[in-house]
Amino acid sequence: MKNSISKEHLALIIESSIDAITITNKKGEIVLWNDSCCQLFGYSSEEALGQNIDIIIPREMRDLHHKGMNNFVSSGKKKIIGQTITLDGLRKDGSTTPIELSLSSWEDDSRQMFICGIIRNISERKNNESQIIDLRGIIDSSPACLKLINQQGELLMMNSVGLDLIEAENFRMIEKANVFEIVHEDDRDSFIDFNKFICSGGKGTLIFKVVGLNGTERIMETFARGHELDSGEIAHLAISNEITERIKNEKELLRKDQKLEEAKRLTLIGEFAAGIAHEVNNPLAVIHSKAQLLELEFNKLTKEKSESFEKIINSLESIKRMTIHTSDLIKNLKTFSSKANFDNLDLVKLTDVIDMVMNISEKRCSSKGIKVAKNIDPNLKLTCSPSALAQVILNLISNSIDAIESQKEKWISIESTISNKTLKIIVTDSGGGIPKEIVNKITQPFFSTKDPGKGTGLGLSISLQSIEKMNGKFYHNSEAENTQFVLEFKSFEK
Q1: Residue 174 and residue 157 in contact, taking contact as beta carbons nearer than 8 Å
Q2: With a threshold of 0.70, does the pTM exceed it?
Q3: 441 vs 116, higher pLDDT
Q4: Helix/strand/coil for 494
Q5: Superfamily of domain 7-123
Q6: pLDDT, tens digit, for every residue of 283-302?
Q7: In a 3-state reduction of DSSP, which class is residue 31?
Q8: Matching fold, domains 245-339 and 341-494
Q9: In CATH, what number does 142-242 get?
């Protein structure tokens, strides 16, 4: 049984091949030109047979082709024989098309050399490659981070903007890395849920924080939708932008608005207090003076100190004490609510400031069953803004009342100490201190542990700024057994 293929069968195979096949002799003359060659180059078999293969080689490449063929014929060195090369082929109409060419050679029984070229049209592949290159260029030139994540959180693709944001030098560093690990732990669970939602075919937006490979934190806003991979799996395709600066500016704007509202509120309180002081002080002065006159007149009427007489005198004494107390309270309220002047600080007695605060807060403390202990050196004088210092101490007392009012043991202590030429005003309450995980946040604007609507989160932030403007220090003492805040000053007299 013969294993050879007949010439007729070989010719049939060549003619039915989807690849263009041509055979030339050593002179480059075409001796075989199949139907696929006709379709690819536009020459019929009758037109191509006998022609030099130059008819499909662009003019600028013919010298190189001739040189290579002459070298092969004379030396037998096969530089491109047996290899596949990519080049442009020349069509009958003068246009070119990208082709992939594989060459082989043999000699027949008469030792005549022939060269066979198998030619494949790769214009569609080139077009696809071009589109991929263009798409990659668009992706890399995008000002946003573009990324593709699978259902497990593995990173399949990320453009150069994204690589810069997560501080990766190249994609190889993070290919197939788990994106969940660079999402900040505070947002990780919500991001995992978001990825699951997108990979189930959903679409949406999310704001989250990432931590770069070098530790830099950034706030990102992302829009994502599902994207079907070649495997049929739905992945997470996202466009993300850094909004760290935007969030920072929004918070700063909100902080300024809150401070403006606070300033307006204090201005209104000051105006109101001034008006109350004007309206109330005059009647109080009249009541006080009339009580004094009544006391004098009663003393003139009789020398006998009857029980009724004593009751009347005691009542008059009470009226005088209450009018003095009310007058002092209004005076303190007016001083407390006046605008703090940090440019011209005054030397004031510390006890005057503390008394001002206690006149305002004492009633609230007693109504909550909170005992207040004061241990202030009466000779101490401090360079400060009295209204600002009073505001800080009153805010600490107010916070203490809110924190301990439901506790069994309820007390607040205010004391002064001097050591190393530093005056310390220490405000302590019976609370158990500030948790370590939030102690660094309590002086940040808008941070509050109170229920919504019960605090602005600005009290301690404003207190810190006020004390620093008075050249002092303000801090929470984490080493104290109870909740304790300390105000330190260098400028004082005793």
Answers
A1: no
A2: no
A3: 116
A4: coil
A5: PAS domain (3.30.450.20)
A6: 777 777 777 777 776 776 66
A7: strand
A8: no
A9: 3.30.450.20
